[in-house]
Amino acid sequence: MEHDGRGADPDKRTWRREFLAVRSGLPGDVVRAAGDALAERALGLPELAGARTVAAYVSVGGEPGTLALLDALRARGVRVLLPALLPDNDLDWGEYAGPDSLARVRHGGKMALFEPSGERLGPAAVTAADVVLLPGLAVDARGMRLGRGGGSYDRVLDRLERAGARPALVVLLYDTEVVARVPAEAHDRPVHAVVTPSGVRRFPRG
Q1: What percent of the chain is modeled with pLDDT above 90?
Q2: Cα(126)–Cα(53) distance, rounded to whole angstroms?
Q3: Pairwise CA distance, residues 188 & 142, whole Å
Q4: Which is more confident, 6 or 108?
Q5: 171 within 8 A of 134, measured Cβ to Cβ
Q6: Average pLDDT for residues 25-36, to the nearest whole number?
Q7: In angstroms, how far apart are the furthest CA atoms of the chain?
Q8: Residue 206: what pLDDT?
Q9: What is the pLDDT of residue 162?
Q10: What's the half-sphere exposure (Cβ side, CA atoms, 13 Å) at 61?
Q11: DSSP letter string over the chain?
């Protein structure tokens, strides 16, 4: 997919549709291989090497797989927090205790998500994270992330800022999803790094 940022940017809805269409066509073995490679790359990040608590997510559909990374972090003794979607699109959090601790939850007509089945810790639990792994569809040369549009992670980032928390913000993507520029709005915040199967790219921390 070629997006060089020249001319008028398509709106976010168009971009999301394009990236999701590409992901929907990926074979399962490509998704699994990307997840394994991502885990290996991400585990080498200094931020994760020193992390005691990591807020993450369980990949769904064509997203780059995260389960290998979640299990590797847990094996290191890291406390891994996973989101649970609330009716207003905010996120509650629970602790990951292995694949058996996940429940498949469908929220209305939305895609089914895998959420922690144990105790809910409250939306503010994310402020204890040393690293927050963010889902996304693309990231650009500025570190601006294109999300799915639900606003859940905008709330998370706002909550972190209001709490004075400064975790490392890392997005996990396929190589083709790192582009020159994505549409961004005033409230959008850059991430600090993107991990893809082929490597890591960092962005300045503000």
Answers
A1: 76
A2: 9
A3: 11
A4: 108
A5: yes
A6: 91
A7: 49
A8: 60
A9: 96
A10: 17
A11: ------SSPPPHHHHHHHHHHHHHT--HHHHHHHHHHHHHHHHT-HHHHT-SEEE-----TTSPP-HHHHHHHHHTT-EEEEEEE-TTS-EEEEE--SGGGEEEE--TTSPPEEEE-S----GGGGGG-SEEEE--SEE-TT-BEE--SS-HHHHHHHHHHHTT---EEEEE--GGGB-S-----TT--B-SEEEETTEEEE----
Structure confidence at residue 151 as a pLDDT band (50, 70, 90): confident
How many angstroms separate the CA atoms of 15 and 145, rounded? 12
| Contact criterion met (CB below 8 Å) for 190 and 179 | no
In this prediction, residue 1 carries a pLDDT of 37
pTM: 0.91
**Alpha-carbon distance 108 to 116, whole Å?**
18
Distance of CA 96 to the CA centre of its chain: 16
Q: What are the residues whose beta carbons fall under 8 Å from the beta carbon of 73, sequence distance 6 or more?
A: 43, 48, 51, 54, 56, 80
Give the dihedral sign, CA 189/19/176/8. negative
CB neighbours of residue 71 within 10 Å: 15
Q: Give the list of residues 6+ apart from residue 74 with CB closer than 8 angstroms, or none.
A: 80, 96, 97, 98
Residue 6 in this model has a pLDDT that exceeds 80:
no
What are φ and ψ of residue 102, in 5° steps? -100, 145
